[in-house]
Design a protein that fits this description.
Length: 564
């Protein structure tokens, strides 16, 4: 028995010696930190994509379930109050033998961006928002660094203008209700000119005191004969209508010296010919020119047609691709007519903003193509100055083919100039001694104009030698902000520094005269010669900053004025 008990004791001792103690449970630690800036609602945090914790005020926080030592942790924000943004600092790491209390959640009032687009800029523009001035150098989108909370009032303005431009801001003020993206900045060329300013260069003459056609000799590459109509400038080339010589002269750039020679000629085989032409290569007294920077349109007046070069001509002999007002280029087609596909001695054309407009002068109307024509003789889409495409009588408001005793807001009499920016429309209504403006581009035939210049109302047509009057306005040109009108029979160009919105608005500046009450031809008025300041029946204007070119019909020249 004694031996048995000893054996059992030995076995128990051996079993006890072989038994292992259970492992101690792993150490765990809690993850937390502090919240600052919270207001206006609840914040929800999440740990490792699983545990969630919601707080409604600042202070310390700790997730309820601890993590094992050496575990990775990641704290993220899953919900914030409606007008707050909350960010986590120190939100990732590994548990290292102690509770984590270093996670910082910082909340702040939500703010929104303010921006928009710039169009027409060709320099450096400064835009102001509060204490920030943003320098913009390219067209397209822009965004201020400054952000504002919902409900804040904002005002964006132009701090510094680009050289030679004036920029305006649309939608520039309001109350923040989210990201603001509709700020619209439009920049326009701006010409700073003085009344009776002298031109800097003369084209077609060797000096400012000469006025003879063809410089008193024979036709050549540096002469002009009765130029009338707007010149055009595109891709570094200047196109000048030499009306009396039945041609268009092409210059490589705006001339910088008197009497510069053209580089090529359109409408004639060379610089020594001047005969009236027709067909695809000829011209008959061309007047207004226009370009959209890729194409050139020519009002071929005597041939009662408009020619369209679908690529910019750059050499003598370049021919147009399309003709409007005639079924084709055949010389036998060139009869004037009053129809949707016809023209009668058109004196101006405008090409741009996807549209083509023609001052169909002898038909007393303006024709509109809402898209660029693709075929010869394409019909117009819209007519102004008439009730329909089949009546062409002057000042005929009711379309009965009988001239009314007075003009009206819907009538025209020999319109000779047209311009648009795609929204507004301006027409020189020459024989009614006025300029008509539409504030929105017309959409119906015979739509009435909104504003009249040169007259106090739409039923008057008297001439007046004042800042509000005019006599035979011939052509118009605009930057979209400033408006230029050649008052041909008063030997002057009138300039408005903003497009008028009221009838009879007076002009701000006059070129060609010492003031608004003179119509002198020479300088001095008692003399017999022109100068760089005078004009004789001006009939065309081109705005290509910093230059203003004026077709000076009676002095057989084009004057180049330079903005100061």
């Amino acid at each position: 028995m004694r031996i048995g008990r000893l054996g059992l004791l030995s076995l128990a001792t051996l079993v006890a010696a072989c038994r292992e103690e259970p492992p101690a449970p792993p150490a765990t630690y809690r993850v937390g930190g502090s919240i600052t800036g919270l207001s206006g609602g609840n914040l929800t945090l999440q740990l490792n994509g699983q545990q969630s914790l919601t707080r409604g005020a600042d202070g310390p926080f700790s997730f309820e379930t601890p993590l094992e030592d050496q575990s990775s942790y990641s704290v993220t924000v899953t919900a914030t109050p409606p007008e707050q943004d909350c960010t986590v600092e120190g939100g990732t790491g590994k548990v290292a033998g102690a509770d984590v209390s270093s996670v910082q959640v910082r909340c702040a009032t939500k703010t929104y961006t303010l921006g928009g687009t710039v169009e027409g800029l060709r320099g450096t523009l400064g835009l102001s928002l509060g204490n920030e001035t943003l320098q913009v150098t390219t067209n397209g989108g822009f965004t201020f660094t400054t952000k504002l909370p919902r409900g804040s009032s904002y005002g964006v303005s132009v701090a510094t203008q680009p050289q030679g431009q004036r920029c305006t801001v649309s939608n520039g003020s309001g109350t923040v209700a989210g990201n603001v993206a509709d700020l619209a900045v439009r920049c326009h060329d701006w010409f700073t000119l003085d009344t009776f300013q002298a031109a800097s260069v003369v084209v077609g003459q060797g000096n400012f005191t000469s006025k003879a056609a063809d410089r008193g000799g024979t036709i050549g590459d540096s002469t002009l004969r009765n130029p009338v109509g707007n010149p055009a400038f595109a891709q570094g080339r200047l196109y000048v209508p030499d009306t009396g010589s039945n041609r268009v002269l092409g210059f490589n750039g705006v001339p910088a010296t008197h009497g510069a020679s053209a580089g090529f000629v359109l409408g004639q085989p060379d610089f020594s010919n001047f005969d009236t032409g027709s067909g695809q290569q000829g011209l008959g007294a061309p007047e207004g020119l226009s370009s959209d920077e890729t194409r050139l349109a020519v009002a071929d007046t005597r041939n009662s047609r408009v020619l369209l070069h679908t690529t910019l001509p750059a050499s003598t002999g370049a021919t147009p691709s399309l003709v409007l007002g005639q079924p084709g280029f055949d010389p036998g087609d060139r009869l004037p007519g009053c129809a949707r596909t016809s023209l009668s001695f058109p004196e101006d054309v405008f090409l741009g903003h996807g549209k083509l407009l023609v001052a169909d002068s002898s038909n007393n109307r303006v024709l509109v193509w809402n898209t660029l024509p693709a075929t010869n003789g394409a019909p117009a889409d819209l007519v102004l100055g008439q009730r329909s495409f089949t009546t062409c009588v002057e000042n005929d408001a009711n379309g009965d083919a009988v001239k009314d005793s007075t003009p009206g807001a819907t009538t025209l009499w020999n319109p000779t100039g047209v311009w648009t920016d795609g929204t507004r429309l301006v027409v020189a209504d020459s024989y009614n001694n006025r300029v008509l403006l539409w504030n929105q581009f017309p959409t119906t035939d015979g739509q009435p104009a909104d504003v009249v210049l040169g007259q106090a109302d739409f039923t008057s047509r008297a001439t007046a030698l004042t800042a509000t009057g005019m006599n035979t306005p011939y052509t118009v040109a605009s930057t979209g902000l400033q408006l230029f009108v050649t008052a041909s029979q008063q030997h002057r160009v009138l300039v408005w520094n903003t497009l008028p919105t009221l009838n009879g608005t007076p002009a701000d500046t006059v070129l060609g005269q010492a003031d608004f009450t003179h119509a002198d031809l020479n300088d001095p008025p008692t003399g017999t010669t022109p100068s760089g300041r005078t004009l004789n029946q001006p009939g065309g204007v081109l705005l290509t900053w910093p230059h203003v070119l004026v077709s000076d019909y009676g002095n057989n020249r084009v004057l180049v004025f330079t903005s100061r």
